[in-house]
Amino acid sequence: QEKSPRLSADLFGEDCEISHDQLYELLKYAALGKCHNATQSSWCRIYHQSHLAGVVVLVLHEMSQLHFYKFYLQFKHLRKVFRHRFTLTPSANFLASLYGEGANPKPQSTAQGLTSTSSECIPKISDLECDPIIRKYGEKKQGLTSYTLTLEEQKKNDYPIKGSPGCKGYVDTECDQQRTDSSPLFGLDCEMCLTAKGNEVTRVSLVDAQGQCLLNELVKPEGTVVNYRTRFSGITKKMLLPVKTRLPDIQTRLKKMLPHDAVLVGHSLNADLQALEMIHPSVIDTSLLFARNEGRRFKLKFLAKAVLGKEIQCEQKLGHDPAEDARAALELAQFFIEQGPAKVAELNLETLLTTEKLAEVSQSKAALQPQGCRVQKRLNEPPHLTKPCFLDCLQVTGQKPLLLGRQELDSSGLCQSNLSTSNKQILQRALEDVPLYTFSIIQFSLGPEYIASHLLAGLCEKVRSKLTDMLTIYAGPFEEGFCLKSVKKEFGRCGPIQSLTVVTETYQPYVCIQYEVLEAAQLAVESLNGAEVAGSCIKVQRPVTAAMLDCDVLIKELELDVENEGVIYVAGLKKSLTETDLQEEFSQLKDLETLFLPKDLQSGKHRNCCFLKFQKSQSAVDALDVINGWTMKGSKLRSRNALASGHLCRWIWQMNHSDGKQGGDILYKKMGQLSDSEQDLRKKVKKLDQHIKKLYRRLQNNTLCVVLFPGVNSMHGSQSGLGLMGIKDDGGRSAC
């Protein structure tokens, strides 16, 4: 039993957002152990990794954390089995983030029409005619206008398009002049942070054709910052404090700086223009220009080293330098235009990347360098790849990876698909094949029709509305002229209050209170209903709406959620108490493992409540008896079982502080038209949960299972992804 593998992840509380690099780091170590430079991830440790029976990753395409919480009751298996949960930033190339940069799985269609792959991941290109660059552009050199994206290509790759419904309010650069092969090139790159509104610009850089930086400015986002993404953006809270520049200021400056025939160059430039909320008709996207097999894309860091001999995005630096990235993309485009497709194809970039044998890059490349660019001369050092394909590494160690799915991926995807293949067929194949492999990725799908902007917007608004109702209570009736301060003080002992208003439309006054956490509202209903407050015997209840009819069921299921096992909520704390003070006060409680003191994400101040996590469930039950009625520093404490102690706690805050555009920009009065779609979606989600349950039961004990909701990231809106994970133990549950 001592050697059984287990997870140790510090995801309790608000610090539970995991990047794709961190997820890749975990999966690589789980699959390879200490082989091939794999190391323990910083956010989740795997003890006794060598005793893992296998790794199974379940990808639920077209789904986000919005779906998990909207259909929480339908996900009966997921919420009762996987105790570790984390937010995942949505990605346009989600599967690639699971494999690493060098990934190149080569799918084979089976008789059932499923997508399947083993580790035959390395392409061998012996004929230039087969090179994707030659197939796309031919061998002859052409002017820059031959490499600008067509309108159809822009639409396909999610570029902001003039007149598109998703681009309402976007600023047009008004660069309408006819482009020629002598039109000026400008490199553009932005860094973003995650706010309550989604991705927002924090720094913008623009360079001209000579590499001179014309603009490199910090931008203060409109929404409340949830994650500065300092590791990638280099942006910190301190850097943005004195900044006055806002997005409209940058939009105005860019319009003035760009000539009417300007061609913008960038790497995955669509993301930058979407974040800038700007429309520009003529662009060169280097992630598409250097075409790859099956439509995948090279990383900018790799291209800069392999083509230009430049090291960018160095690990020693804090975050990316947008001016450096903009300049690299510009020089890559100039290289391609000046040398032509044939010379670029001769570099054999695919082989350099997938084999990691880059010593073949010789001095002959020096003759291919563009005269107009400042390209480093030292090309004899092979580029350094930060994330090699660990599927290749599995093959070297004698293990076989498995990929099954029916998802049709876009140009940045990794595999082909067969849309006629159902989730049931995928499940049947997985039940047969997963036990034969040590690493498996199984993809299920709702279908592309379920990521339509109007459906996402409807779901988002309904979830937000229901959360608001669950956080809200009505109390009364009170006598005329009652003491509102006394009411606020009494109800404040249940937890942090977001708003308090007096209802005067009734015969006698009532009070409407919206709390910040679910536990506070539930505690108020349980402890103050029928109590005497401000001289009146009052009734405390939640709003009565159709959506709230299952509120009691939902509260009960939240209490039984495995994430809340052994966790209690404590309210009535004095705000002057520090975390150290509370640790000392609660130290007498048996088996106390962790204390989490929530902060207001806007002000940074502690709330008047905390969560206590115990090693054993019975210890949590015993602690409730001790704490209820306990007086601490003159304040009487109230306590109950936790409802939203972990991931849900953060998600509720984000939903309540978002601007309502996460799911798309539509009129919510049309929501009545969505009932049939939502009913169908509810059935699909329930069936999907049953599929996962069947597959999970078939897994061997000591198998690491990770369930991923990739999230949605398009011009219609963005929804963050969600991850759930655990190691299956003898009881069929996921062990810590």
From TrEMBL:
This protein's UniProt keywords: Exonuclease, Hydrolase, Nuclease, RNA-binding
SMART domains named among the record's database cross-references: EXOIII, RRM
UniProt-listed InterPro entries: Nucleotide-bd_a/b_plait_sf, RBD_domain_sf, REX1-like_exo, REXO1/3/4-like, Ribonucl_H, RNaseH-like_sf, RNaseH_sf, RRM_dom
Keyword Cytoplasm: no
Domain spans labelled RRM: 471-545, 566-644
GO molecular function, one term: exonuclease activity
GO cellular component: nucleus
One of the Pfam families matching this protein, by short name: RNase_T
PANTHER family (UniProt xref): RNA EXONUCLEASE 5, RNA EXONUCLEASE REXO1 / RECO3 FAMILY MEMBER-RELATED
Protein name per its UniProtKB record: REXO5 exonuclease
UniProt organism field: Sula dactylatra (Masked booby)
Gene coding for it: Rexo5
